[in-house]
Amino acid sequence: MSFSSTVEKIIRSRLVRILLALVLVGIGAWAFLPHLAYRIAPTAFVNSELVRVTAPIAGRLSPDLPRRGEIIRPTTVDLVEALSSDRRHLLDLEQQSAVAKDRAELARRQLADIEAADGELRNRIESYRSGTIQRLDQEVVEAQAEKAACLAENEQRRDVRSRMEQLAKSGYTSQVRSAEAAEY
Length: 184
Prior knowledge:
With 184 residues, the chain is mostly helical. It has two domains: 3-82, no CATH class; 88-183. The chain has helices spanning 3-11, 14-37, 88-170, 175-183, and strands at 44-45, 59-61, 71-72, 80-82. The strands form two sheets. The protein has a two-stranded antiparallel ribbon with strand order 1-3. Strands 2-4 form a two-stranded antiparallel sheet. Helix 3 runs antiparallel to helix 4. The longest helix is centred in the C-terminal third of the chain and has 83 residues, at 88-170. The N and C termini lie far apart (141 Å).
């Protein structure tokens, strides 16, 4: 007989099935027993064993704790009365204040640096502007002087041409010489 056939015979046996049913009924009863043995309701009772609890802060146990069998109304109950005040929130706020003051001081320094750079840039712009205006004024004066020189040269050439024409008409110079003088 093989192993699988032996296992199948054991599983199909009436005694094994009855034992399995009894085990399942026993587990169900064991799970439901606390509901039968103890009072369970929408209101809570203190009905547990005493358990030592260590507090996360220094203090002593509150005298207002509920006693065994006492109904607890939906309110907050302080378990520990602090011997010293909790300063964690205050320390956090002090740290945030220090960081904010440091940032404000940094912003003030940056604004002062920007104002100094702005003043320096304003001085440089004014210097450049005045230098450019002076240079342009000098170029205007030079251009006016060149214009006056060109006008004077043009007037001189007209005078030379008119004299050469008069000399050519009177016969003191040749027509070729008069034409050469007119070209220059």
